[in-house]
Amino acid sequence: MEISKELLFFFSALGAFNGVILSLYFLFFVKSRHISNKFLGAFLLMISIRTGKSVFFYFNPDLSFHYLQFGLTACLFIGPFLYFYIMSVKGAHNSIKKEWIYHFTFLLITALVVGFLYPFKTNIDLWRPYFIDAIYYVWLVYTLLSLYKLLPALKEALKGRSKVTSSDVWVLSIFFGNFAVWASYKFSYFTSYITGALTFSFLFYLMILFLFFNRKKSKIIFNPTEKYADKKFESSEAEALIEVLKNVMSEESLYKNPNLKSSDVAKKIQLTTHQFSQLLNDNLGKNFASFVNEYRIEEAKKKLLSNSSFTLEAIAYECGFNSKSTFYTAFKKIVGITPSQFRSSNL
């Protein structure tokens, strides 16, 4: 290999190799357990596999079709993982939503079925151009969906406003880097097939430089929950969440669990524990214990009126209280009288 080709191979492969290393860091070793880091790791892994495949194919045109198919299949998931990453960051989600699972499952099944029934090696005419074009269009669709989610931050950035945070700059950089790589591959017939890998290497090291110069803010960048720590819900959003919360509490009778934690309920309505606490405090004016105890007391009142054979202690445990004393205290605080007085006054 000539020196110029060796240098070209080195710089084009550098981004793909280091991208795999960084992706493994985000997937398994980053301190913050926020779900966005998993999606970022998966996104970097998919795009690194894709660029790595193009590097080896460029310098070795006889590369096995199995590697070619593997690289193109990874390409199918670049856009979705970018979209999931941006959704988890901008929406402050720290758990995988059901609809995201549907997206991924559909694409995975499609990739496995098509790959098994129509392998690249024996169906080159189908893969070029039809399957490959379809893969790039899927990548583009999810990129556009990501752009829609980023429009508010992008508008602020274009206006040069101070509201643009380091986290916004980071996510926008990831987005435009992804788009640049997509364009490099999609329009490679105007330039060169290796351009996509070189673009990724260049953007990868720009990303590293950004992290280096913003290392003091990296905790916020990789733990998006903190960014939204003081963000209040809009009235319409709060009303919708409270409605969902009430349905979950009533239909699943979560309050009957004496060991129920706020994190358990928060997960049910797809909020962080902090966001859930803020929802209760700002919109219902109560803490978690008071909120749950109201449901328990309402259930206790029904049992006190429906069956006089139940002991007060049995009712307490049945409704989710850990002890008779906490039941008495909560009941009197909410109703104004003791459970015994309530029962006798309604007989």
Structure report:
The chain crosses the membrane at residues 6-27, 65-88, 100-118, 130-148, 169-187, 193-213. InterPro entries: Homeodomain-like_sf (IPR009057), HTH_AraC (IPR018060), HTH_AraC-typ_CS (IPR018062), Tscrpt_reg_AraC-type_HTH (IPR020449). The protein is mainly α. It folds into two domains: 3-226, Rhopdopsin 7-helix transmembrane proteins, CATH 1.20.1070; 235-345, Arc Repressor Mutant, subunit A (Orthogonal Bundle). It contains 16 helices and no strands. The radius of gyration is 27 Å and the shape is elongated. The termini are far apart. The mean pLDDT is 84.
Helix content: over 70%
The CATH class of the largest domain turns out to be: Mainly Alpha
Please report the number of helical segments: 16
Secondary-structure element series: HHHHHHHHHHHHHHHH
Average residue-wise pLDDT? 84
Proportion of β residues? under 5%
* Radius of gyration from the alpha-carbon trace, in angstroms: 27 Å
The CATH topology name of the largest domain reads Rhopdopsin 7-helix transmembrane proteins
The N- and C-terminal alpha carbons lie at a distance of: 96 Å
Tell me the domain tally.
Answer: 2
Helix and strand composition category = mainly alpha
Domain HTH araC/xylS-type: 239-345
Pfam families: HTH_18
Keywords: DNA-binding, Membrane, Transcription, Transcription regulation, Transmembrane, Transmembrane helix
Transmembrane segments: 6-27, 65-88, 100-118, 130-148, 169-187, 193-213
